[in-house]
Amino acid sequence: MKYRIAFSLLVATLAMSQAHARDSVGNYPIESAMTSEGDTLGGDVALYFGDQSHPKIVKSYGTFATNKKTNAFGKSDEAACQHVFLSAALELQARARKEGGNAVVGIKSNYRNVLRSSTTDFTCGAGAFVAGVALTGEVVTLKH
Which keywords appear in this protein's UniProt record, sorted alphabetically (predicted)? Predict the structure, then answer.
């Protein structure tokens, strides 16, 4: 009998947690996110979003994607999204270094495989416990 009651309570708790799950998709300013945690992004690999102008491409290494998640518990959607955006941008920079590039151009949001190009905003999905950002961009060497 005790086990039946405990099992019923467990099932009810799990059902309630699913009922309260949320997934809010929003757009946030790139500039605010890039400066939200100081000088986190290295200056050796330039990042160009959307159709921002950039110097001439000398060599392309291909298009690469990143899909990062972070703990959003106890954080505002904006704070969690800014943090996970930086993680995604850092991963693109690391990929550029690995490939021998000095920039990532044409960076687009790709949340839930929906490409969105913007020079000012990125797309982020935030829930009660997790926030996520997906970016895609072309790793290149730009003329100095």
Answer: Signal
Distance between CA atoms of residues 128 and 72, nearest Å? 6
Nearest 5°: CA angle at 110, between 113 and 24?
A: 85
11: exposed, middle or buried (Cβ count in 10 Å: 0-12, 13-18, 19+): exposed
Structural element, H or E, at residue 2:
helix 2-19
Quote the domain boundaries for residue 105. 21-142
Q: Dihedral sign, CA of 66, 136, 84, 92?
A: positive
For residue range 48-96, what is the model confidence (pLDDT) as tens digits? 999 999 999 999 999 999 999 999 999 999 999 999 999 999 999 999 9
- Spatial distance between the Cα atoms of 96 and 59, rounded to a whole number of angstroms: 12
The pTM (predicted TM-score) of the whole model is 0.84
